[in-house]
Amino acid sequence: MKPIIEVIGAVIERDKHILCALRSPTMSLGLNWEFPGWKLKDHESPKEAWLREIKELKCDMKVNTMVESTTKESDSNIICLSTYRAKIVSGTPRL
Fold it and tell me: Where is the signal peptide (predicted)?
C-alpha cells in the first residue's frame, strides 16, 4: 500500500497580490511556480499545521475558507492536498 501524505496549501493574499514561489531547478518539478504548502505532521490537524508554519513565516495571517481539496497518486505515494485562502494582516513573510 502506498503511503498517504497529507499537505495543506496556502493561497496567501495581500493588497491584491498572491504569494507564490519558484521551485529550485534542482528540485523535483524544478522551475515550476507553487503556492506555499506544508506536510501535516503525525496526528496534526490542518489548523495546527497552519499555526506552526505561520510562526515560521514571521507574520500574522487570517486563514479563511478552503479553496479546494484534491488527491493525486504517483508511483510511490498518494498526496492529499487541501488548499486554504489566507490574508496577511500584519508583517511581511520571511523564511
Answer: none
